[in-house]
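Why does residue order matter? Because the sequence determines the fold. Keep that principle in mind as you read this record.
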Amino acid sequence: MKKQYLAYYAAPTLFILMLVDSQLTRIFTNATENVYLANAHLFLIALMVCCHVLPKRYMLITGLVLGLLFDTYYISVIGIYAVTIPAIIWLMYLLHSILYRSIFTMFFGTVILVTVYEVLPLLIQVLFNLTTVKVSFFISHSLGPTLLINLLLFVLFIFPFKRLFGAK
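Structure:
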């Protein structure tokens, strides 16, 4: 696809990836018989590539809209991902000069971004007394498996996403 059309298909593609993420997460969770919660974040990996090639304003607005859709459909509390996704996008732009130096920096950036993407919504939920969680349980049963799965997904999908979104 030509780069001039990227803005037209980036947001719908990111939305579809959010839906795919939820299905992959369900598959991974069922595979461990609900012992571990490995959240797939293909959306986040694609978002990282999009932030490299698309303007900040477009990405922040897209992130806000996708966050509102995510909140409405999955959580029923508007505001958690409507804050988290734009915050992650802002972080991607803040780290732009470091994050996009090579595939290796993007790989390690994925560790940071996935961690923030998992911890920030949890902190918001704990702050507003929507949930309680033990830190050791969260790290061992959710964050650890999530990082493992997403690093594998990064290795598998970074080059197709770079090609799809026209990143160098």
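DSSP finds seven helices and no strands in the chain.
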